[in-house]
Specification:
The structure holds two protein chains of two kinds.
Chain A (H helix, E strand, L loop, with lengths): L5 H17 L4 H23 L5 E6 L2 E4 L6
Antiparallel strand pairs in A: 1-2
Helix pairs in contact in A: 1-2
Chain B lengths: L1 E3 L2 E3 L6 H12 L7 E12 L5 E6 L4 E6 L1 H4 L11 E11 L4 E11 L4 H15 L17 E6 L4 H13 L4 E6 L7 H12 L6 E5 L14 H9 L4 E4 L8 H5 L2 E3 L2 H8 L3 H34 L2 H4 L1 H44 L1 H6 L4 E3 L17 E5 L4 E5 L6
Parallel strand pairs in B: 5-7, 8-9, 8-10, 10-11, 11-12
Antiparallel strand pairs in B: 1-2, 3-4, 3-6, 4-5, 6-7, 13-14, 14-15
Classes of the chains: A alpha+beta, B alpha/beta.
């Protein structure tokens, strides 16, 4: 799931919620969906919880350094 | 054939329409399809339909001009007779009158810089190539993992962008591609930064600078930059710091923000909003499943309380009763079948009786048989002195034949 993008995860989560709300799946399928949905929600939360943002500058091709922001 | 000077002209005259069409075709040469012409306005008429009709003239010549409503609505001034203006447009033929005229796309007051003219020309060219088509625009990622920013590392634009990004979502990574945003070398520098960015993992690019005059924004009107933005694999948001004037970069970018801060807002959603969305979906999912389980449980309860499961003996009782009913009706059927058969038997017996010789005997006739048991029907069948046997209704007689009559 690490390669999954936030957007795709959220879209899949929406799909699962709709499917469960419509109740069109069998109960055991529903439980499988629910489990997937819980994982997706956790993944989305993790993506949003990344607190440490990196600000970097590309000096040249492939040469990236941290960038210090001078507050004005 | 008519003699016409030295040449002989075949008499296959063109219709007026055909000639006009040929003239029209001759006028569609590229050089006449994108012209800038300067002249003095006369006979100006802003028609009720919204179209503008006028002439442009100089000391020797005059050309009719029309600027349709859709075009002239964008004018920031109203032309009047005597104005010297620069018109951009194309030459065409108005067939009903057989007149050629200038179809004006844009008008500028005289004295507008060459830079503006070049800008409008280039804009028209890129637009014609389809570089501004809405269909080409890509959507921005919902939550970029890394935002690329192409601007000056020392400019206010970068500070604004970083400030807004951090406020909206503290976890968003930024990769800065430093570039000159002003001056002769700026276009090349911006294009280079854009191409460097293509090989990184940034999900979206902001390209821009703080506000500036038309001349200061010139780098963002560069044809090379516009094409590089159009070719970028990564969605590009332009932010050239001007609320009203659009640069070519703005037109060609996937998304145009009026300021660098606005670009940052477009690129990164509010973290709280996304968190709330995820939480809400999680809750909906939980309650949907809970509802589902409750409804299944209710159904199970209904099943458990159904008569069959609650009192299974009922099921047997019912069936036994039914069996009894069937027995009864079977007996009824058998009886009625017996009666029917009996009747049929009686009828058959009656019929049989009517065919029996016994009835005939009862009426007083008798049957005569010889000694071999053969029925005697004619007198000559027996000889005198032979014994014959007579069967009567009751009993039989043995008789000696004494006389025969034929």
């Amino acid at each position: 799931m690490s390669e999954l993008k936030f957007e795709a995860a959220l879209a899949r989560l929406e799909e699962i919620v709709r499917s469960l709300e419509q109740g069109d799946a069998e109960l055991d399928e529903g439980l499988v969906l629910f489990e997937e949905g819980v994982k997706l929600a956790r993944f989305c939360n993790e993506q949003l919880d990344q607190a440490e943002a990196k600000i970097e500058i590309m000096i040249d091709q492939g040469l990236i350094e941290p960038f210090e922001v001078k507050e004005s | 054939m008519l003699s016409c000077g030295k040449e002989m002209v075949a008499l296959h005259p063109l219709s007026v329409s055909e000639l006009t069409n040929q003239i029209k075709a001759a006028l569609t040469q590229p050089a006449l399809q994108s012209v800038a012409v300067q002249g003095e306005v006369s006979n100006f008429l802003h028609h009720r339909s919204g179209h503008m009709y006028f002439s442009l003239k100089d000391t020797h010549s005059r050309i009719k001009a029309v600027m349709f409503r859709g075009r002239n609505q964008r004018l920031s001034f109203t032309p009047k007779n005597g104005d010297t203006l620069i018109a951009l447009g194309s030459v065409g033929v108005y067939e009903p009158n057989g007149e050629y005229q200038l179809y004006v796309d844009m008008l500028f007051p005289q004295g507008i810089g060459d830079l503006h003219l070049a800008f409008e020309d280039l804009k028209a060219k890129l637009e014609a190539e389809g570089l501004f088509d809405p269909g080409r625009k890509r959507s921005l990622p919902l939550l970029p993992r890394r935002v690329g920013v192409i601007t000056s590392p020392s400019g206010a634009a970068l500070r604004d962008i970083l400030h807004v990004l951090r406020r909206r979502h503290p976890g968003v990574n930024v990769l800065l591609f430093p570039a000159l945003v002003q001056g002769e070398e700026a276009p090349e520098s911006l294009v280079r930064a854009l191409s460097l960015a293509q090989n990184t993992d940034v999900d979206v690019l902001i390209i821009g600078r703080g506000g500036g005059s038309f001349e200061e924004l010139a780098a963002f009107n560069d044809e090379g930059l516009a094409r590089a933005i159009a070719q970028s694999d990564i969605p590009v948001v332009s932010a050239c710091g001007h609320e009203t004037d659009f640069t070519l970069a703005d037109f060609v970018a996937d998304c145009r923000a009026p300021t660098p801060s606005a670009a940052a807002e477009l690129v990164v959603p509010l973290r709280e909003e996304l968190l709330a969305a995820v939480t809400s979906m999680r809750n909906r999912m939980v309650s949907a499943l809970r509802r589902r389980i409750e409804s299944e449980r209710r159904y199970l309860g209904q099943l458990q309380h159904s008569p069959v499961l609650a009192r299974p003996e009922h099921m047997f009782r019912q069936r036994r009763q039914r069996l009894d009913e069937l027995w009864t009706s079977l007996g009824r059927f058998q009886r009625s079948a017996l009666v029917l058969r009996r009747g049929k038997l009686a009828a058959a017996v009656g019929k049989l009786e009517s065919l029996s010789p016994l009835n005939t005997l009862a009426r007083g006739y008798s049957v005569c048989q010889n000694e071999r048991g053969e029925i005697v029907r004619q007198a000559k069948q027996v000889s005198l002195g032979e014994l014959v046997y007579l069967t009567l209704q009751e009993g039989s007689l043995s008789c000696l034949v004494e006389e025969r009559k034929p």
